[in-house]
Design brief:
By secondary structure, the protein is an alpha+beta fold. It has one domain. The chain has a six-stranded mixed beta sheet with strand order 3-2-1-5-6-4, covered by helices on one side.
Length: about 120
């Protein structure tokens, strides 16, 4: 799996890991994840199988979930589409995996909103 991310400053990063970070607030402990990668040249590709457009808030969750799917043979290029959205381009591999992951993330976020309203 290769995930290329173009930052808002225009630098390209090959995201290849996530680091676990424990945050302690009083008696509560929460686990946060930080994406890790290396600077790289812009990826070269000739065709795109499918393009998804996501809010920036879901992009980190998508990358984190994709990193857990290490077996998948996927090449993904993520670029800013606007100030608050990213374009996720599937260059190699099966786009249905990304579609499934996005659906799961959205379903989880909706269930959290409903449970907090109750």
């Amino acid at each position: 799996m290769k995930i290329y991310l173009k930052t808002r400053s225009g630098k390209w990063v090959l995201v290849n890991n996530k680091l676990e970070h424990v945050v302690v607030r009083g008696k509560k402990r929460a686990v946060r994840y930080i994406l890790a990668g290396e600077s790289t040249d812009p990826p070269s590709y000739t065709s795109v199988k499918k393009v998804f457009e996501l809010p920036a808030t879901l992009t980190t969750k998508l990358i984190s979930t994709l990193l857990d799917e290490k077996r998948a043979k996927l090449v993904v290029v993520i670029e800013p589409a606007s100030e608050s959205r990213y374009a996720v381009k599937v260059v190699e591999g099966e786009p249905s995996l990304i579609d499934t992951v996005i659906s799961e993330i959205i379903a989880k976020s909706k269930s959290r909103v409903k449970s907090s309203e109750e």
